Structure formats: C-alpha cells, structure tokens
Amino acid sequence: MSISSTSTNRSKSLGDPNSRYESLKGLWRTSRALLNGQNQAKALDTQVDARNNILLPFSPTMSQEQYDFYKAEAELPGLTAQYAKVLTSGLLRKKPLLELPDDAPEGAKEWLENQFTSDNQSMLSFLDEAIWEEMQTSRAWVYVDYPTVPNMDALSVEEQKMLRPYPVIIPAESVINWKTSQHPLTREITLTRLLTRSYQANHDNNPWHPDYIDTVFDHYISPVDGLFYIDVYEKNSDQGENVDFINGVAQQDYNVTGGGNASDNQWKKVRTIDALFINNERMTEIPCYPLNGSINGIEPMLMPLVDREVALYNKVSRRNHLLLGAATYTPVISSDMSDDRFEEIVDAGLGSWVRIDQGDTVSSFEAPSKALRDMENAISSTISEMARMGIRMLSPDNGSGRDSGVALEIRNAGQTAILASLNAKISQQMKKIIVIMMNWRYDTDYNINDITFTLTPDLNPAPLGSDWLRLVTEWYQNGIIPRSTFLDIAKSNDILPTDYDDASGIGEIKDDDLIINPNLDLDTSSMEDLVRDQVNARDKKDEEEEDKSGT
C-alpha cells in the first residue's frame, strides 16, 4: 500500500498518523487477522467490500445477506498462525541467558528473571507476549515505565525500594507518529519524538462500565534543554468514544482526519509529565524501544506466508460453497401447469411420489463436481507452495512421515535464518531495556556492554548426538577447550539446565560426603594434582601386585 505525502500534511492534526503508518496499517490488519484465528478474520469483514476484505465476495453484485451466508461457510486453514507459534516456541524453548556485572545489586537478577513486569510476571512470560506481537506486525514497541505515586516522600524506605520500573508492550497501531535525529559526529540515529494514541478507560460517570477517552501521549526530547517530556492530550468529546472489541482486544485503526494542528479545538492538553529522573538527574532519552530495532517500521516478517494463506482462505471457502451446492439438488420442472398445481408439487417435498401431466419433465441441476476437483487441485498447489516457503512441519515432502506432523525439529534453513536474525535483534534491544531498568531502580550507571543477554542459547533443538558430545568431553579433558565452553555446549544440548550455576555446583560437590576428596579445590592445578595422584596410586598398586606375583 502506497501513501503519498504532499502539502496536505500541513492540515493534519496531532492525532493523525504519519504516512509510513498509513502505508503499513493495512498489512498489520491482514496479518493480525490471519494469526489470531478465524473469528478475527471474519469479524473484520463486516461489509461487502471487494477491495479491503480478506474474504472476497465471489460476485460483484453480491448482497450483504448473501455475503453473510457465504462468510458462515468460510474456513481459515490457520497454517501461518501455527507456523508463527512454532517460531515463537523455538525462540523461547530455553530460558534466556542473562549475566549481570559482578557488582550488580543483590537480588537484581532474581527481579529481572522472575518479577519482570508490573504484575510480577517472569521475563519469559513477557518475551512470549512481546515476540507474538512482533510476529504479527514486526512493529512491537517496549516502553519502560515507572509506578506513579502521589506522595513519594510519605513512603518509607522499604516501600520505596519496592517500587521498580517495568516494561509495557505498545502495539503497532498505537505508535502513530515518530521523529528521529542523527548525531553529526557519530551518525547515530536517536528517537527524539514518539506519539502514541490509545483509549483510556474512565469510570467517573459509571463505576461499572467505563467511558473510553481517545488519548494521545506526545513523548519528546525538548530542543531547548534536551530533557524528556510527555504531553498528554485528550480528544474533545462530550461522551466517550465507541470502541470495537474483537476477541477481547480493543481495535485501534486510526485514519487521517485533518483539522489543523494541536492548538485547534479537536485536542486539548490535560497535563505535562516532566518529573522523570534517573540517577537523580532528568532523563535525556525516550525510554521506548522497537523490539526489532527498526524505528521507521518494516513489512511484517511473515507477510509472504500471510498473502499465500489469504489466497488459500478464499480457495477453501469457495470449495466449501461448492460442496454445499454439490450436496443440494435443485429440482427443475418443465411444464405449463398452473401456480397452484406447482405449489402442490413443491409442498410434497423431495422423495415423494409426484404425478405430473403428460409431456411435463422433472430434472435437477448438475452438481459442480468438476469445479470441486479443480478447486481441490488449486488448494493442494497453494499448500505445497507454502510448504516450500518454510511450513514444512505442516506439509511434509515425503510420504514416510518421518518429518511430518508437529515434530517441530527446526531443520529448515529458512526457519533457522529467521530465528537467528530475530534472536540477534531482540537480544540487542533487551540489553538496552534491562540496562535502563537497572539504572532507574538502583541509581547505577551501567551500559549495554556491561550486560550479557541472549534470547535463546541455541537455535537447533536437535541434539548433536552421543559421538559428538563424547568428542567435546575429550576436548575438555585434554585441555583443548575451557570449562565454560564445555558447560555452554552441555546446556545447549539439554544435558544441563540453562540456569545451572557452575560455582554453586562446585560448592555442592565439595560439601558432598559421598564424593571422594570432598574438600579438594576443583581449580586447574588441583585437577592436575588429582590426576597425578590417581596415576601414581595406580602405578604403585601395579608394582605391589607384580612383587606379589614374583614372590
């Protein structure tokens, strides 16, 4: 979808999305519909519209009643949704690897791993939701927020320590406008303005059912002092906005309405937020990050498969309509009988004996069996094409069944490439998020180079096999690779849990009375001494046995 930007941009208001948003929102709509199931796909196609509907009417003169009936027959295959879930599961199959600096505050890692969100959900749960949003739109944003407390000074020290920043996922449709700037020396691109639009629930008029207030949050870095501000605008309306919900989610589809700038009567500023501090200093950056690192937005990553499944959705739905026609026989009577006589025969119903006059004939329309065969071939061709594009676990090439079903071993090169690219992008952005959360809570001064974060330790769930692992073990025993590398390989192949702590493990070994030499330090020199003592003991035992045999 192409959107031209002309001088009409001058008439756009504060809440109007920019041209890049307009060019991408159609892709988001289609991708969300396909990945969120049949109910959402059908709920978006409310009116007959051959240009914008996902399910196309099969006739330009189709009435609304005919389209509603046709939509009831429609069937969404759901292949792309299943594929997206496989990719998400592939990235979250193992616990993310997080390493903090040695001087990190006590309890910081426990907080980040197990109480990451505002409702104390784990980092894994947050990533599951964030990656699913990324799969749908390739436009998931993560905003780092902090609890708002009216009287901060009234809280005790312990209560203030309980306050901590938390990440918030902003869907693609809410980020309506943005602006970047480039540093003249480093050429680094930074976000200097971000406008988000959403519906805020207001219970002032009704304690049970809220009014939804259309609200714009203008996050920006002031060109005057270089500090971070948030201006909050509400749309002028006597009543709340009408909000559509599909599958329990509010639908946000903002269009350009025009109407002037922020000073007109369409939007009113209700407050400005400027008390944003880190390390007792005002913030100088917008704490919002695109999960894939692309500020300007890109086409959804699964869009090629989504487009194929839209075609498949229409073909399967046409097939279902033909099946209904093939299972329904329409009688045809050729006669000049009166209407009363015709109604009498019709009321007799199918399967009844009917007496007709001489010369009259009764027949039926032919079932569309040939069209059904052609449609089945077209459906099979589209499924095979999607299989060649990556969805192999849902449509295996061979008939043996060895790689069929949902075995979900990611052996396809395309799948592995998608996961590897997304893993690198998300890992880099998560480091930025973790750094600002730690600095905000503990008044530290870490940067992304102080944090190690890897979304998934490995990208191939299939183990290397016993022969390879035996070879790796020999490398470690012979001193070819360090202990840390050996442990990483063991974790990647599910021999050790990903959260295994080597230091605590060595401590448990030393304290275990069932292990020989429990107090022995297991460093490199001690390992050499242990091997040397065992070899000397064995040689001594052999000499004693030889002496006994000689005697």
Name its key features:
551 residues, alpha+beta, three-stranded antiparallel sheet, 15 helices
Strand order of the largest sheet: 4-5-6-7-10
Overall average pLDDT: 82
Low-confidence stretches: 393-410
Largest sheet report: 5 strands, antiparallel
Gyration radius over CA = 33 Å
Q: Number of DSSP helices?
A: 15
Shape: flat
The count of DSSP E runs of length 2 or more, i.e. the number of strands, is: 16
* Structural class by helix and strand composition: alpha+beta
Describe it for me?
It contains 15 helices and 16 strands. The protein has 551 residues and is of the alpha+beta class. A hairpin with a 6-residue loop joins strand 6 and strand 7 (228-235). It is flat.
Quick rundown:
The protein has helices spanning 19-35, 38-44, 64-73, 79-91, 108-114, 123-137, 157-162, 303-326, 339-348, 369-388, 413-442, 466-477, 483-492, 502-511, 524-550; strands at 97-99, 141-145, 166-170, 175-182, 189-202, 211-221, 228-235, 245-246, 249-250, 267-273, 277-278, 281-282, 288-290, 331-334, 361-364, 452-454. With 551 residues, it is of the alpha+beta class.
Question: What's the layout of helices and strands?
Answer:
Blueprint: H1 19-35, H2 38-44, H3 64-73, H4 79-91, E1 97-99, H5 108-114, H6 123-137, E2 141-145, H7 157-162, E3 166-170, E4 175-182, E5 189-202, E6 211-221, E7 228-235, E8 245-246, E9 249-250, E10 267-273, E11 277-278, E12 281-282, E13 288-290, H8 303-326, E14 331-334, H9 339-348, E15 361-364, H10 369-388, H11 413-442, E16 452-454, H12 466-477, H13 483-492, H14 502-511, H15 524-550
